[in-house]
Every structure is written in structure tokens, then in C-alpha cells.
Amino acid sequence: MIAPETVVALACVTAFVAAGIQRITGLGFVLVLIGPIVLLYGPVEGVTIGVLLALVASLTAVPLVWRRVQWRRAWWLIWPGLLAAPFGALLVRVLPEPALLLLIAAMAYFALIAGWIPALSAALTGRSGAIVAGASAGFMHVASGLSGPPLAAYAVGSKWDQTRFAASVQVIFATFSVMSVALRGLPVSPASDIWLLIAATAGGIIVGTLLTRFVPPRVARLAMLAIAWAGATVVLIRGVLALFF
Known about the structure:
TM_pro_TauE-like, membrane
């Protein structure tokens, strides 16, 4: 049994690193965070904390990229996601813990391999592609916090400029996170722990901003992938074990 202080310390380190990576690469906060946070707090509380911290990360980043946000394109991804979000919340309420662990692991793996599926990006183009991508992202965000893959696939398929997409997606993440917090509620962990995690997330964004001049995005991306693969695998193993023990 891990001491509560150790749990908070590990979670703060993870949130700090995840926020720094997101600031450098534009994506990856929840992908890095979700494995460790679910292992530390469980599938329900872990994702609830994750979406709250995702909101903090996005709100901290938005002022830094405000001028590059493309609001019209972002809106066509946001409104379908808001309509689909309640179904993600319903799924979380009806699934038992082992199934939730397996669902989170599956979504994490999908997030990691989605970029290697050309047909996915090819299918997500135009207004219809935006609706499908936005709805999928909204559903996934509430269920697991992992809404990046369909949005990234749409960006590739529609040839969205990477800089403007990375800016616009912060607004999308922030909106989906607000909806997720509204549907899932606030974490039940002690308020002092949550404030420490919020501070670690904001600190990671600030440090990541300073490091953008020195750390190549490729290096940050490799770190993101290594942590995410490890986290998804451990969550998968825990879910499988939970089915039998």
C-alpha cells in the first residue's frame, strides 16, 4: 500500500512532466498522465482528476496561443463533441472497474496507434469528418480524457496547419474538459492534494514554455510515447488481473 503522501508526490511529478510535454509538442498531456494517474487513484477518480488537470493545462496554454486559434474550425469540432459527451459519462457509470480499466487501456492504445492509420485521416475530411471527429473526441474525453486521436486525424486529413491546429486544439480541450467536469463532478480526493496537482500542472506549462527554445519537439515526443506506452500497458495488465482476482 502506497502512502498518501507518496501518491500525491508521484501524481504531481507526472502532471508536471505531462504539462511540460504538452507545451512543447502541443499534444499529449492526458496521454502521458492517464496511465500513472489511473494506477494511483483508480479508473473513476483517476480520470476525473485527469480531466480537471487537462482543463487547467488548456486554460494555462490558451493565452499563450490565442492569436493563432482558428475559431470557426474549432467550433465545428466542439459542438458535436458536446452532444456526444453525455454518452461517455453514461458508459462510465454503468461499467464495473475492470471494464473501465480495459476501456481506458484500449483508448490509450488507440491514441498511440491512430497516427499510423492513414485510412482514418483520409476518412475525416470536410464538415462530415469534423462532426465525426468532434463527436468521437467529446465521447472519449469524458470517458477517459483521451480526445486527441480523432482531432489529430482530422487535422492531418484536412491538412490543417500544425501551428494553428495546436493552438486551436487547446480551446477544444478546454471546452471538452469543462463539459467532462460538469458531467463527472469534481474529484473526491482531499482539496489540498488537488490544489497541489493543479499547481504542478500550471508549473509544467510554464517550464515547458521556457524549454521550447532548448528541447526539440522530437525529443519531447519520444518521451511522451515512452511514458504513454508504459502507462497503457500497466493499466491493461491491471484490468486483466482485476477480471480474475
